[in-house]
Design brief:
This protein is of the alpha+beta class. The chain has seven helices and 13 strands. The longest helix is centred in the N-terminal third of the chain and has 17 residues. It is globular and about 50 Å long.
Length: about 260
């Protein structure tokens, strides 16, 4: 069974209202059992198009579910992708209201900034590194508009890959960066060490995840453009956070990045 255009539009509306009111909904996969992966991406694109019509701008993409930890956490077995919009990007050290989210988590990632376009298919990790201008320590704020994070792959895909925000630290030109697979991140909440991980957790190398993204986007007629940002995936598990908590990720020679929820 496939969904009608009306059902796709209704799914998109439900997610928009859940995000706007910070009130999660029941899983779309249960309410609309015919929702497949292609339909879920169509729902995602519908909501992104509406936000663009309201004045937002696409500044990049995120890859989700690239680490074993996150796939185990959410019970899925393949990556997905979502959009990054300009109104989702925050400066290092920002304070954000926890009440704007349904059930936020935070995960450390290495953010890529592209100097040249990447157009799939056939993009390899070496092409990604050749096209990358700089990398930065980052924290992605992820939030599920699905109640209790009871998501399947189609739920999170429809929900913009559960992306809600990006906090970016200092940029390091790629030629001065170490081997990204060997970079480690320590995640702290209120000064307490929560988890550690390395770039190797992200499909073996973060550039491999960016290559996967470029090739996946090609099937949707989309290119990663020069100047865009890419989050390749989490290096650790993603703890829940709430008001009054500060999250910091330390990336060694790449520096650190933090966000406080108020």
């Amino acid at each position: 069974m496939t969904l009608t255009d009306r059902q796709h539009a209704e799914a998109a509306r439900l997610l928009r209202e859940a995000e706007h009111h910070a009130e999660p909904i029941e899983p779309l996969s249960a309410a609309l059992p015919g929702l497949g992966l292609a339909g879920a991406y169509a729902v995602q694109r519908d909501n992104i198009a509406r936000r663009l019509a309201d004045g937002a701008r696409v500044v990049g993409h995120k890859v989700g579910l690239t680490s074993v930890a996150m796939r185990l956490l959410l019970g899925v077995d393949e990556p997905d992708f979502g959009h990054l919009l300009d109104d989702m990007v925050h400066q290092d050290g920002v304070s954000v209201p926890a009440a704007r989210y349904c059930a936020p988590r935070v995960e450390p990632e290495m953010c890529f900034r592209l100097a040249r376009p990447l157009r799939g298919p056939g993009v390899a990790a070496e092409d990604v590194l050749a096209a990358t201008e700089a990398v930065a320590p980052a924290l992605e704020i992820v939030d599920s508009r699905i109640r209790d994070w009871r998501i399947t792959l189609v739920d999170t895909v429809a929900d913009n890959a559960s992306s809600a925000g990006l906090v970016c630290g200092p940029w390091t030109p790629l030629e001065y960066a170490p081997d990204l697979a060997a970079v480690t991140a320590d995640l702290l909440v209120d000064g307490e060490h929560i988890a550690s991980g390395s770039g190797a957790e992200v499909l073996g190398h973060p550039a491999t995840a960016v290559a996967w993204l470029a090739n996946a986007l090609a099937a949707h007629g989309t290119t990663l453009e020069a100047g865009q940002l890419v989050l390749p995936g989490a290096m650790t598990t993603a703890p829940f956070v709430g008001a009054g908590q500060k999250v910091e990720a330390r990336f060694g020679c790449l520096g650190s990045v933090s966000v406080t929820f108020v």
